[in-house]
Amino acid sequence: MRKFDVDKLVEGITQGNRALIAQSITLVESVKPAHRELAHQLLQRIQPMTGKAFRVGISGVPGAGKSTFINAMGVKLVQERNHRVAVLAVDPSSSRTGGSILGDRTRMADLAALDDVFVRPSPSAGHLGGVARATRESMLVLEAAGYDVVLVETVGVGQSEVAVSGMVDTFLMLQVARTGDQLQGIKRGILELADVIAITKADGDNEQAARVAARELAIAMKLISSDNDKRRAPVLTCSSYTGDGLDEVWEAVLKHRAELESDGDLSARRHAQQRDWLWNMVRDELSEALRTSPEVQAVAAEVEAKLDTETLSALEGAQVILGAFADAITTFPWGRRSAD
Questions:
Q1: EC number(s) for this protein (predicted)?
Q2: Which of these three, 209, 231, 262, is where a domain ends?
Q3: CA–CA distance from 59 to each of 89, 168, 191, 280 (Å)?
Q4: Is the pLDDT of residue 216 over 50?
Q5: What does pTM read for this prediction?
Q6: Sheet of 170-176: strands edge to edge?
Q7: Which domain holds residue 222?
Q8: Is 340 within the bounds of a domain?
Q9: Per-residue pLDDT tens for 21-36?
């Protein structure tokens, strides 16, 4: 098993050592129990250095050009606005083998080549919505390393939008024109999550279609809520190829961040995210403990066999398994910890 030195990793993070930053993210991504304990130590050590970055989630329909947009926007943020940019690009993983495409680095070649940029493709490993389990923790590592803009790209399918909106300050949704009905497939719940909406590929023959799509989406945003005092996500157009509109999109992100700060909502949002994160981690830990419990494994095969012969119902089987887990739960390291 790979060994990690927490002291060395913390020092490397604070000094901006790219190799040690990468090792730190590898540690927090690991699901091995010994590594998880070290990851917890690492996160506690760097916690005072986190929380100052712009956290922006980027999602959208397949084909909207998310990676190309991040490449163009990231280069602009580094070269024209002097930001240090980190990208967490969550790739789809095979449900059978766990393999991942990890092709984002090739689609972000210009951005990845810059010194003030850190691009980390992370396989989703089958977790909800394609968002990697350790994405939140990786974000903290990058913030502690001094990256002041963290962009989180998701695969844009299923519930990934919900997952990413729960870990960022601003949720940017990308849409593309000329996909049939512009509103088809965009659910109300997804529109309600968006803080900024951008129609991409607004160049050449597609520019007019993009503007039409933007008008339609702007109308849709008004229909979602009749409350005129409620903030509505601005709908903009941009081109990652020509760069047109990228400044306006980023200014919309900055405006949203400023509004959150002035109203005190940024702190409230992050506190709410911390509470959600707390319970997500509790569920993950319980699920892993349940899956690996020898007591559960001892009865699981018998329960499944009885299900096959219809001598036991699923409800009765669940009660047997949970009973075995309850008897074993105090043997786990976290079984007797208090909030103190």
A1: 3.6.5.-
A2: 262
A3: 11, 12, 12, 21
A4: yes
A5: 0.83
A6: 117-123, 85-91, 149-153, 54-60, 170-176, 196-200, 235-237
A7: 51-262
A8: no
A9: 999 999 998 878 889 8
